[in-house]
């Protein structure tokens, strides 16, 4: 149905997820917080009571320790002073998220940092120097998740890398960590190519030490939630938070992310103009990796082999079949939302269903909101369009995504949709089979930061599996 986009006579809709979300916000400052529920079908997945209560306590913690509080001031004053013992139990501890890679990667690492914060009673603050404030509203009431610009380490954050003396993995490697001196801050490196020493972050023993470090600054391009589940003493609490193990991203992303009014305007305008009247919406996310990227016939053939093979799109009929199926009043309308950097894929689909009738008589309406050609991360409008498209994809009934694309992972997780994943084409050929139905709606942790300490745990954790589209990755099912 049609959504309102900020008119004065807004219906007072319940925020999405009901009790999952924080209350106490001014609705108009962030329309998506309330309007999403009018576009989304109610999620069949309900958050556990424990998750809801942990989120409420997190909000109180964030308010007590967040920017502008005395606790925050005290904590920043301690930066740079290593301590002999750990500080008092009531002192606030923090984990700082920094943006790395494209928007999909950023959203995945942000959710991972937030779950880590929930698990370890830390306060999560986000580096706001990219365009995060143009994309998302504040998730926590009466405080801010933005790391203040005058944070004492701001100038250092950019120089944190594996060579840096505060890099945890590097310190482990050079035996610079001892349990008597607690550094005031550490840099944590969690990338697809992190070293074995960096991956030791995910060992139970190391977590015991890290718990006493007041500030952690994390850089990551991964969804490393599955690796948190492989820390043995994290598992009982995680199971209590998420009795349905494949709902972590779904719940946390719906809780944390509320697109700004500008982005939400794009979502609702597209939805109302092209999608709201359809009987069914199919989303197709086409991400072409490699250079040159662009339009390839084998990719188009693969999309058709998958969508027609899985009966997501009808076959084409003959001109004669048109005569028998031309009953437009009763025909079902299927809207196909295509997102891609390249406009040619939707053009091709559109032409196909214009030139010939569908064999079923269904009316196929193809829509692609943008075709930006090249990735332009950190350009405000480009990122806003990308986010709007991720949200639109998450509002579809059925979804086809591209292998190893974090853009698609975010859409499926937000929407609670188990997509069909298009396999990666090799040698410019259509893979056989062209696609596979995902085991769960959870994102894949593309290159699992598995540490040696986790090799046993993974064997006895049946709900962490290797990904359908990436054998080096793991995901929750
Ligand atoms: P990934 O590289 O597919 O894992 O996804 P990311 O989101 O991390 O990075 C890709 C970036 O390219 C996005 O953030 C967008 O900036 C851009 N991009 C890729 N695909 C699309 C698309 O379908 N629509 C739009 N608007 N932008 C896209």
UniProtKB/TrEMBL annotation:
Compartmental location:
Golgi apparatus, Golgi stack membrane
Which GO MF term does the entry hold, naming one? galactoside 2-alpha-L-fucosyltransferase activity
Give the enzyme's EC designation. Answer: 2.4.1.-
Q: Which Pfam families match?
A: XG_FTase (PF03254)
Query: InterPro entries, alphabetically?
Result: XG_FTase (IPR004938)
CC annotations in GO: Golgi cisterna membrane
Q: Name one GO biological process term.
A: cell wall organization
Q: How does it sit in the membrane?
A: Single-pass type II membrane protein
The main location class comes to: Golgi
Q: Which UniProt keywords apply?
A: Cell wall biogenesis/degradation, Glycoprotein, Glycosyltransferase, Golgi apparatus, Transferase
Q: Does the keyword Lyase apply?
A: no
**So which domain of life are we looking at?**
Eukaryota
The protein's enzyme class: transferase
Q: What does this chain do?
A: May be involved in cell wall biosynthesis.
Protein family per UniProt: Belongs to the glycosyltransferase 37 family.
What is this protein identified as? Fucosyltransferase
Species source reads Thlaspi arvense (Field penny-cress)
């Amino acid at each position: 149905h049609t959504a309102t986009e900020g008119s004065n006579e807004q219906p007072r809709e319940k925020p999405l997820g009901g009790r999952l979300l924080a209350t106490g916000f001014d609705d108009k400052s962030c329309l998506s917080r309330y309007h999403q529920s009018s576009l989304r079908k109610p999620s069949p997945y309900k958050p556990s009571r424990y998750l809801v209560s942990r989120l409420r306590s997190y909000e109180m913690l964030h308010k007590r320790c967040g920017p502008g509080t005395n606790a925050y001031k005290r904590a920043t004053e301690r930066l740079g002073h290593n301590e002999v013992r750990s500080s008092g139990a009531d002192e606030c501890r923090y984990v700082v998220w920094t943006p790395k890679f494209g928007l999909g990667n950023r959203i995945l690492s942000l959710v991972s940092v937030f779950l880590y914060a929930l698990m370890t009673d830390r306060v999560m603050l986000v580096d706001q120097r990219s365009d995060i404030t143009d994309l998302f509203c504040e998730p926590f009431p009466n405080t801010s998740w933005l790391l203040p610009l005058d944070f004492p380490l701001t100038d250092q954050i950019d120089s944190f890398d594996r060579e840096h003396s505060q890099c945890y993995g590097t310190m482990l490697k050079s035996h610079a960590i001892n349990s008597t001196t607690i550094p005031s801050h550490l840099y944590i490196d969690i990338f697809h190519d992190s070293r074995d020493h960096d991956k030791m972050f995910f060992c139970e023993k190391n977590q015991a030490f890290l718990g006493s470090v007041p500030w952690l600054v994390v850089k990551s391009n991964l969804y490393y939630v599955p690796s948190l589940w492989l820390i043995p003493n994290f598992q009982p609490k995680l199971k209590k938070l998420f009795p349905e193990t494949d709902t972590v991203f779904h719940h946390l992303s719906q809780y944390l992310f509320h697109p700004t009014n500008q982005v939400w305007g794009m979502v609702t305008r597209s939805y109302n103009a092209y999608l709201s009247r359809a009987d069914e919406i199919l989303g197709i996310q086409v991400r072409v990796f490699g250079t040159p990227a662009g339009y390839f016939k084998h990719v188009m053939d693969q999309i058709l082999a998958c969508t027609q093979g899985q009966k997501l799109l009808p076959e084409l009929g003959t001109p004669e079949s048109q005569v028998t199926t031309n009953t437009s009043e009763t025909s079902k309308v299927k809207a196909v939302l295509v997102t891609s950097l390249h406009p040619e894929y939707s053009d091709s689909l559109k032409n196909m269903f214009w030139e010939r009738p569908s064999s079923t008589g269904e009316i196929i309406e193809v829509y692609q909101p943008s075709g930006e050609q090249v990735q332009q991360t950190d350009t405000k409008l480009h990122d806003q369009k990308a986010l709007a498209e991720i949200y639109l994809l998450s509002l579809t009934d059925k979804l086809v995504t591209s292998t190893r694309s974090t853009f698609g992972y975010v859409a499926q997780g937000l929407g609670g949709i188990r997509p069909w994943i298009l396999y990666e084409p090799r040698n410019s050929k259509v893979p056989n089979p062209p696609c596979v139905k995902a085991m769960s709606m959870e994102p894949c942790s593309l290159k699992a930061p598995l540490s040696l300490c986790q090799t046993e745990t993974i064997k006895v954790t049946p709900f962490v599996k290797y990904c359908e589209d990436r054998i080096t990755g793991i995901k929750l099912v």
